[in-house]
Write the structure tokens for this entry.
Amino acid sequence: MRIGEAASAVGLTSKTIRFYEDRGLLPPAARSANGYREYGPDTISRLEFIRRCQSAGLTLAQIQEILHIRDSGTTPCTRVRDILGQQLIDLDKTIAELTALRASVAEHFRTIDAADPINCDKEQICSYI
Amino acid sequence: MRIGEAASAVGLTSKTIRFYEDRGLLPPAARSANGYREYGPDTISRLEFIRRCQSAGLTLAQIQEILHIRDSGTTPCTRVRDILGQQLIDLDKTIAELTALRASVAEHFRTIDAADPINCDKEQICSYI
DNA sequence: ATTGACCTTCCCGTGCAGGGGAAGGTGCAG
DNA sequence: CTGCACCTTCCCCTGCACGGGAAGGTCAAT
């Protein structure tokens, strides 16, 4: 199958597949006589794996690392476990930061919502932030 | 005061202050005879306002909009209120997404943590993701 | 006179994951 | 023959908020 068909099969664009090849997430594609990239079902499952990883919030660099481990003949499970564990730590940190930020913004919002613009001090641009 | 002094007074770099001027968050600075930028206390409070906005998670584009409203002679309070309200909505959305992602990643993590790498299917790269 | 700490403008690079569009080749239908 | 959809490589652009470093000017102290 050609690149456009492969792309729509997994919900990507041709551009993205070429980009993945360029970044080393896909091996250089086989070419048919006219120079067009030619893909088999193994590439499709590889692309689907990439999508599953992305929906787990992994970066392309992390996905590439996992794929390279698999390509070198080793099961990537241990590394995947480590990456997901770190992902949990990072997510907890980010969520905590955003939650604190939300509380701070909500406090500002309550203040300004109860305020009278007439009291706004020009020197401070806006007195309520 | 010159740019370096202003920068350290508010905890920024000279680069950042020039960048803000370039982006229109600061008016073109007055220059002394040698061409150096010269700042007064009004710029300092403007920079401090920018910092307060940033710690509330506003983008430079939003801050610029608020500053322009103030510069045009109007109190920006109403617009600030709207922006903070939208900020709350966005934060809630992001936090909800990240929380869902965390649950999904945690589920993957539990699965792989309990799995035996021997069962990992090569076709799927990693069976547990 | 020369160092050293400032300052100026200018352009390019960072991270992330692609997207836009040019210029040209291929293959099939009408 | 022409149109159309598809493919190729190539290079630059996006958003976000700056940072790095070059090449050169300025000023006070030594």
